[in-house]
Amino acid sequence: MGFLGWIVLGLIMGAIGKAVLPGRMTGGWFATLILGVIGAVVGGWIGSIVFDAGLEEFFSLQTWVLAFIGTLVVLLVWGAITGRNKRT
Question: Is the pTM of this model over 0.85?
Answer without folding.
Answer: no
